[in-house]
Amino acid sequence: MTTEHRAIVAVDIASFTDPRRTLMHLRTVQEGLYDMLRVSFDEAGMAWKLVYHEDRGDGAMILVPPEFPKLLLADQWYGRLLAALRRYNEVHTLETRVQLRVALHHGEVYANSDGVVSHAVNLAFRILDAKPAKSALAQTGGMLALIASNDFFQDVIAQEPSAVPSAYRRIAVSVKQTETVAWLRLPDVHVPPPAPPPPRVQVTPLSDIVDALLELPFVREANSRAMLIDLLPREIANSVPYYPITRMHVFALVQTCLRHERGLLDLIEAVRQLDGDSGGVRRLEGIKRLLLSDSVD
């Protein structure tokens, strides 16, 4: 028995056992799969006759020799496979059309005349069965799902811009006793850019504060409003101009407080002294937090 480090490709035909597929359909699908694999490997510069492959009934296991760079799988081969898939599906009926999930991994493989044994191969088939990958392919209607193991992604894809690492998203894998993460790409599915954030509502804090104050009965009454002003620091209280119209007077009060560094805090504290922890005080506190968050932004 010999041991070699190999790039590992695990392939699965989605919904292979769909009851709508007759035996003739299954034969057509399996023959089509190997035609697509043969063509795509040859076109990507990895001669199909030099790669080891085993049939898995509804898919295949492929071991790529070390003389072929692993990067070829992530930046060239998958594109040739997708092209072959498009050509195949274009000329076949619904029952024989194919969606593929493909897992990419690498690791030590023990091989003899009877086959191969490898923890790395086992992991490749675990991530191939990841539910998020199955769901994404089914929901989008894409033809191909690429699932890279975390090792393959970090060691190969993330190191090379031509492999477009930003096109992959991290997914959780929980299959049998395996709990890990992998990276998913749907190369023929257009993922729209994130929607721009909704425009921020223009807040007019001055009028908001005035409205909140005027909801308080003691602010609407002239004598108690004067008491409120007297509770403010002297430099603020002495600067508030008087207006006979209630709203104008309160407007001038708020405007004066906002000109001082802690003026709004002083105003809220004065209101609290006269009105306790009322709904009006809580509304003023909310406006204060909004103003502070805007200043941070």
UniProtKB/TrEMBL annotation:
It comes from the Bacteria. One of its GO terms (biological process) is intracellular signal transduction. One of its GO terms (molecular function) is adenylate cyclase activity. Residues 7-128 form the Guanylate cyclase domain. InterPro entries: A/G_cyclase, EAD2, Nucleotide_cyclase. This is Guanylate cyclase domain-containing protein. It comes from Kibdelosporangium aridum. The lineage of its organism: Bacteria, Bacillati, Actinomycetota, Actinomycetes, Pseudonocardiales.
